[in-house]
Amino acid sequence: MPSDPLSRAGENSLSTPGRLGQPPHRPRTSAVEVRRSARRRRTVSAYREDDRTVVLIPARMSQAEEERWVTVMLDRLAAQESRRMLGDSELAERAERLSAQYLGARARPRSVRWVTNQNTRWGSCTPAEGSIRLSHRLQGMPGYVTDYVLLHELAHLLVPGHGADFWRLLEAYPRTERARGYLEGVVAARRLPRPAGPGDEPADESGA
């Protein structure tokens, strides 16, 4: 069984994506569908539909304008979703729904809750207790990211390690790759040096 360096005995956890075993490689597919309409003159709108995001744009838009507006609308939807904070009871209901939709309702946690003491992992579970914990740092992220982490921990109730059997369980979730990419981006952004602000002195590289 592959070991997780951030797991304690009897636990499985979702740490930062770079520390996880990698899923089998498969081509990435777009979760965005752009629909052009000749009746639209200037307005652009977007909404979630099943496992994809639909962006509605005027037919006359150029490819560059389309790409810019897709980015803008995805950011707006993510901001809207980030304001919908889930409580523990809602998180448990979400887990039940995800288990039914993607795992045949086989994963049945006894408890699902937010915790504030997980700063090096996104989520963890203890299969023996049927408990799942998600880091509070996920609050404010797009809903599909929280769903991925929650589904990841639900899958661990069925398969403890990160082997091929585990990743096969997550193949049904269409945003696995996108969510992993989002989390990897969050981790990478935190590693960037802080830009100097007004009044900050430049770093001394002389070593003195």
Tags for this entry?
208 residues, alpha/beta, four-stranded mixed beta sheet, three-stranded mixed beta sheet, 5 helices, 35% helix, disordered N terminus, disordered C terminus
Give a written overview of the molecule.
- The strands form 2 sheets. A 4-stranded mixed sheet has the order 1-6-7-5. Strands 2-4-3 form a 3-stranded mixed sheet, covered by helices on one side.
- The protein has helices at residues 63-82, 88-102, 143-156, 164-170, 176-191; strands at residues 12-15, 32-37, 45-49, 52-58, 111-115, 121-126, 131-135.
- The protein is elongated, with a radius of gyration of 20 Å.
- Helices cover 35% and strands 18% of the residues.
- Helix 2 (88-102) crosses helix 3 and helix 3 (143-156) packs across helix 5.
- The N and C termini lie far apart (49 Å).
- Strand 3 (45-49) and strand 4 (52-58) form a beta hairpin.
- With 208 residues, the chain is α/β, with parallel strands linked by helices.
- 25% of the residues are buried.
